[in-house]
Amino acid sequence: MSDQARVLKFQIFRYNPLKKGDKPRMVTYEVTEAPGMTIFIALNEIRETQDPSLQFDFVCRAGICGSCAMVINGQPDLACRTLTANFADGEIKLLPLPGFELIGDLSVNTGKFMRAMSERVESWIHDQHADDVNYDKLEERMDPDVADEIYELERCVECGACVSACATKRMRPDFLSAVGFMRLARFALDPRDKRTDDEFYEIMGNDDGVFGCMTLLGCEDYCPKDLPHQTQIAYLRRKMALIR
Amino acid sequence: MKVIYTDSLVIGGGLAGLRVAIASMQRGYDTIVLSLIPAKRSHSAAAQGGMQASLGACIKGDGDDEDVHFGDTVKGSDWGCDQDVARMFVNTAPKAIRQLAAWGVPWSRVRGGDREVIINGEKVTITEKHEAHGLITARDFGGTKKWRTCFTSDGTGHTMLYAMDNKAIQLGIPVHERKEALALIHEDGVCYGAIVRDLITGELAAYVAKATTIATGGYGRLYSVTTNAVISEGIGTAIALETGVATLGNMEAVQFHPTAIVPVGILTTEGCRGDGGLLLDKDGYRFMPDYEPEKKELASRDVVSRRMTEHMRKGKGVPSPYGDHLWLDITLLGRKHIEKNLREVKEICEYFLGIDPVKEYIPVRPTQHYSMGGVRTNATGESPTLKGLFSAGEAACWDMHGFNRLGGNSVAETVVAGMIVGEFVADYCGANPLNVSTATIAHFLKKEEKKITDLLVRDFGENPFALKAEMQQIMMDKVGIFRNGPDLEKAVEELTVLNQRARHIALRNRISSSNPELVEAIRVPKMIKLAQCVAYGAMLRTESRGAHAREDFPERNDRDWLRRTLAAWPDDSTDLPDITYEDLDVMKMEMPPGSRGYGVDNIILHPDSEKRMAEIEEITKANSAAGRFELQQLLNPTPIPEKFKGKNERIGRGYK
Ligand SMILES: Cc1cc2nc3c(=O)[nH]c(=O)nc-3n(C[C@H](O)[C@H](O)[C@H](O)COP(=O)(O)OP(=O)(O)OC[C@H]3O[C@@H](n4cnc5c(N)ncnc54)[C@H](O)[C@@H]3O)c2cc1C
Ligand code: SF4
Ligand code: FES
Known about the structure:
The complex is a heterodimer of chains A (244) and B (656).
Chain A: E1 7-14, E2 25-32, H1 39-49, E3 69-72, E4 75-78, E5 91-95, E6 102-104, E7 107-108, H2 110-120, H3 144-154, H4 161-164, H5 167-171, H6 177-189, H7 197-204, H8 218-222, H9 229-241
Helix pairs in contact in A: 3-6, 6-9
Chain B: E1 3-11, H1 15-26, E2 31-35, E3 51-52, H2 66-76, H3 83-102, E4 113-119, E5 122-128, E6 149-150, H4 156-170, E7 175-177, E8 179-187, E9 190-198, E10 204-214, H5 235-241, E11 248-249, E12 254-261, H6 271-274, E13 278-280, H7 288-291, H8 301-316, E14 326-329, H9 335-341, H10 343-353, E15 362-371, E16 374-376, E17 389-391, E18 396-397, H11 409-431, H12 438-457, H13 464-478, E19 482-483, H14 485-501, H15 516-540, E20 549-550, E21 556-557, H16 558-561, E22 563-568, E23 578-583, E24 603-604, H17 607-622, H18 628-635
Parallel strand pairs in B: 1-2, 1-10, 2-7, 10-17, 16-18, 19-20, 21-24
Antiparallel strand pairs in B: 3-6, 4-5, 8-9, 9-10, 11-16, 11-22, 12-15, 13-14, 14-15, 22-23
The complex binds flavin-adenine dinucleotide, iron/sulfur cluster and FE2/S2 (inorganic) cluster.
Residues 11-17, 34-37, 39, 42-44, 46-51, 156-157, 179-181, 215-218, 227-228, 231-232, 235-236, 267, 269, 369-370, 393-395, 407-412, 414 of chain B line the site of flavin-adenine dinucleotide.
């Protein structure tokens, strides 16, 4: 901790589409850095003391819920767990995550996108008998390693960083994107999901699905949960290619 | 006037709300869920540690069952809980976890054979039964006799919430996101839905429903440092209070978690200590065994938090620019274990503290964590005073936690309450026609419209952000882990002043659509009222029970205080709630009040305790042939819905 606190310079994208006459612009705010300061803390300070209209989304502020992805000095990341100390020159430029509907300033509607994604990939266990299970009985056994592997793919927090970093998505608005592939890979691995490969093919066996991926792997580079996009997309692609 | 009709309106898209919604949808009732944020981002996702259910599959859970879980829960609550509810809960928890397994949660599983674990600071080899291989396993948590806390690596809440929301999506349940319920619609003691603001457009709408369920989570943000999400502001609880008809229960029962990181208050899970982590002081000395020789680091949360505070008061804390703290040492668990089962903790340490917990100690301090209090309901989840209003999850005082909840019992409660209360919500939808006048709907809508217009036209007044910060500081300084009369009186006085000032908030940003300052201005007066319920309730309760620790009244006083605090706010122009009490009936208890087994017993007994003890002995003797189920039925018959009455199977034990 140094004695003289730095003055950080935040350049923040401002635009409220619901305010008549408002135009997109960058606005600069200065904040005195405190030890351990995160972008979450800094943005709240700006809102509370400088501009109460500033919009952004945080929920857990602990890197767990996926609410706060934004473009930080050119790279999508979770703002709540980004320390201001990481930026040597004290200049931090913040933009909303591209590829999503803008609500205002740094707030985008990832929720709407993710619900549509879940509906499209039918993000649930497909088992006709799931609701007839007698829950008094011992649960269905599962190999401990399989359980762990499923969890590895289920760690996605729907933050949208992969979607915003995807070149294919920019060209194909309906491209399912990495977050959707991760979800499909998760269910394809799960022995409780009785879907056949053919059924999975119906969902992703096209150019808006896994065949459209140009493997530029922006997704893997920016995923804050380090999900294995490359191997899983390649796996899904091989699996699907074998079908038809 | 925008009006949306449904049968079952559920306010809150966390684990509890979604589970209630699933129940009413599956019973064929039209259902809508409201949430401030996308459902999967609800605070339930942050639970890392686990969910308690007495499956008894792992070897250290051998011999566990509903009765042992019941005993732990009642003791944990310091006898403040409703034992009927605790009973319903422990009997249903195994079913809840198995249902979630079928819905997709990848629970960590038992691996038959030897494995190395850390117990009491030592490496020990335990041997899991081969016949249990592949069943759901469990870890140790504070205040439990058995290893009962089931988990998914380090992401229990996340996987539970994802499975639950996925199920809701499968059923086509609409979740109206970025909507905030601002007031309940009610008439003649019956609730008919809520007035709701769209957080993007600012539009107000009336959601009119037969049954309304509040599942809005806790009120941790009444405190300036808390492990809770920034949206855990208790607004759902507050709108129940503002009806003037519904009551809140035990608002002064606020839990502090022993291990949140300093200074930001982000939680490191109890799993750290459950898996063998230790607490150390500034000399690197393990101090908990001195205070609690038996349970040590794994005593109940309220106990550990107080011991830590005591130890720091003795000058044993580690000084830092943010005040004293202690160390949590998980280095002894080893890299492999930490990277798999405590990875979230590792990430938090790396990102927020810049340390590697595999090699370094974690700076921790007790921090506000859980709200035992909330919307008072009876065992069916319905408000005893406002018909058609239900509540479940952390928002409710259903009352299975009393004055202290056990780790892992909360996510378990959300799901179990969701199942049970969900059935009663559906019953209610079936039995009651929607019978509310348009005039009433319009009245409530206009009232909220006017409040917002007043805020938007006022030129000068109070800053909502500043009011909130003042309130949070008062709660922190004067209504914390240890409490005393003079501080609490001061807190009540100061909150009274804040409550008056909160009537004159003015905005700098005067637009009605998406506007964070307006959101704050709407919420802060509600939060101040809740804070007052906590502070005033704490001031009046002149005893120590569970998490409510009075320095000036250190004894647990069953004689005078075996009762639940009820807060109501019938007159909006006053600055204090009406406080009344509801006695707990010792003569109906399956487990009459006794010692929790921590420190020196300091209890003023209830006159009925011994009487009931003798009665139970008699019943037990007279029915010596009865099995544990019949005996339990004799001692404490509970209203479990038919669906959930079955006995639970366990490995090596069957349905016994
Ligand atoms: C860091 C942390 C770790 C935890 N770990 C564990 C653990 O390991 N084990 C355990 O048992 N418990 C744990 N808990 C406690 C447990 O996670 C919570 O008590 C539980 O998840 C609460 O669930 P809920 O469904 O009641 O509410 P929440 O999940 O908090 O959901 C509240 C919902 O209400 C909505 N809402 C709120 N207000 C409004 C409004 N006015 N209008 C509309 N919608 C509204 C929100 O959008 C949200 O969807 C932990 C808690 C924390 C803080
Ligand atoms: S896959 Fe990674 S980057 Fe994409 S939404 Fe999930 S967590 Fe975010
Ligand atoms: S606020 Fe939850 S991940 Fe950033």
